[in-house]
Design brief:
- The chain is 12% helix and 36% strand.
- It has an eight-stranded antiparallel β-sheet with strand order 1-2-13-9-16-8-3-4.
- It has a single domain, classed as Sandwich (Jelly Rolls).
- The chain has four helices and 16 strands.
- A hairpin with a 3-residue loop joins strand 5 and strand 6.
- One of its GO terms (molecular function) is dioxygenase activity.
- Keywords: Dioxygenase, Oxidoreductase.
């Protein structure tokens, strides 16, 4: 897959969904993933933000190649919920344990989603800490959606940030679809830029600026070595609603919560 940046040497990398490696992968389950985004629940912690999401996590055993999904907490409305905790790394929800609707079983079995997870794991296998311990794979489906020109749908947090945790933590973002929106620019910057807006930084602190446009376009960051950001999205010029659909996959050594 072609890349811009090198994850091992630069702390970030880009991957192109149009590359031949993904030509057959599109047939594995892109339609099902697209349909899943059409029916995502609202983010229960951000009413009115234009944000919809599901979240589940799995454990990967590097020495066997086994990937096992962790059951969520039963919930009468969504089937199950998965806990999500970011310590103080998300300034909008410091020390807050949140619960998001989990991925349903049929989606966890989606062949393309599982190919993405293993693709990401292959890109971080050079790190010793991820070869000799169980690995946690947190899988987020996040949609930013707008219906009129007064709206702006925002990611969380709405600033440059790091996702926190282990120095062996990585975040991958895979675009599933993007239609009739303006914005959604990704920015990669120095780690000490966390908490700030990209336009407030000196040019030397900004490592890359780009926008994912094609299905399966992706990028990755080695969390403790950079900060990252995605700008809000607004409605484009077509009469239909606008949306940006991304699968975020967080990879880190598995540490059970007490």
């Amino acid at each position: 897959m072609s890349e811009s940046g090198d994850l091992r040497t630069d702390g970030f990398a880009r991957y192109r969904g149009a590359d031949p490696e993904w030509a057959s992968a599109r047939e594995l389950g892109l339609k099902q993933l697209t349909e899943a985004f059409a029916n995502l629940p609202h983010d229960p912690y951000a009413p009115g933000a234009g944000r919809f999401r599901r979240y589940s996590h799995a454990v990967y055993l590097p020495w066997t190649g086994e990937l096992s999904w962790i059951p969520g907490r039963p919930d009468p409305e969504h089937g199950s919920l998965t806990e999500y905790f970011q310590d103080d790394y998300n300034p909008e929800y410091p020390q807050t344990l949140r619960y998001f609707p989990a991925l349903p079983a049929d989606l966890r079995g989606n062949a393309l989603l599982n190919r993405m997870i293993r693709f990401d794991l292959e890109r971080v296998g050079w790190l010793e800490e991820l070869r000799r311990t169980p690995v946690c794979c947190g899988v987020h489906l996040v949609k930013l959606s707008v219906r009129d020109h007064r709206q702006a749908a925002v990611s969380s947090p709405n600033c440059l940030h790091q996702d926190g945790g282990s120095p062996a933590a990585f975040t991958f973002a895979h675009l599933i679809g993007c239609d009739n929106v303006l914005g959604g620019e990704n920015v990669i910057a120095s780690p000490d830029s966390a908490g700030r807006q990209p336009d407030d930084l000196p040019s030397t602190a900004v490592l890359a600026r780009f926008t994912l446009t094609e299905p399966l376009d992706a990028y990755a960051v080695h969390d403790h070595r950079v900060s990252h950001y995605v700008s809000p999205v607004r409605l484009g010029e077509k009469p239909s609603a606008g949306e940006r659909c991304v699968i975020l996959i967080g990879i880190a050594p598995f540490v059970p919560r007490p």
